[in-house]
Amino acid sequence: MITGLGTALITPFKQNGTVDYDALKRLLDKQVAGQVDYIVVLGTTGEAATLSRDEKEEVRQFIVNYIDGRLPLVLGVGGNCTAAVVDELHRLTPTLEASFEAILSVCPNYNKPSQEGLYQHFVAVAQASPIPVLLYNVPGRTGVNLLPETVIRLHQAMPTNIVGIKEASGNLPQIHTLLDYARTTDLIVISGDDGIAAEVMDAGGKGLISVASNAFPEDFGRIVREHNHDLQLHYAPMVSLLFKEGNPSGIKTVLNQMGLIENVLRLPLVPNSEAVQREIQALL
Asked: Which of 38, 56, 119, 166 is catalytic?
């Protein structure tokens, strides 16, 4: 249920800063029509760090109700305080068991834990989660790299709890080390980078959790399912622009220019500069 193309869903806002549920319906309809395999709710791309607890609850329940079983859902649950993440998982247990296939749990940011600290953190998370855990390694954001030996150690210790990893280090040799291990085990290795998805799939990866598929679900589904390098190359300039001034600023510019959302982010994030918006418009 968590292989193939997953969309890291944005959270649309109105000009007054509140969540735009009409726009969220349009985005969800686009994902269903685009035949993505699952949706990741309230992850990094969803600006979860800037949503209040009540807002996260409302967004989460809205998506569960609106999707109504049409697509599998994965929920982002992470943070840099292990005890707080564990408490949140305990509080969310009924919702997780009823409505989600897995959680996506990012490495703690800012603390910069050692590999042993990361291991102990994710053991605690996996023990608290009532559903499977996907690790999320994105050192460009967190400041710490979850090394393959730590991932393998975690999977060997808790193979039914820790089922896979979203790898967004961009480090192909590191990803290949995980894929070598995955060939003889049931570890799921998922690309977290739109720009190298086909390469990861060629080497045995099980899918992509994508930012770009918010706007282009059909084509990124083809990249994943067909290992389509030509189509990936076609989208390379757009993918570069999506991250030129940070995520989700780029994808929100695209979705705004498509007429799907207002171009609003929550501080400390801001919309793309006018120059980048013009570049994106030219590509569209």
From this structure: 166
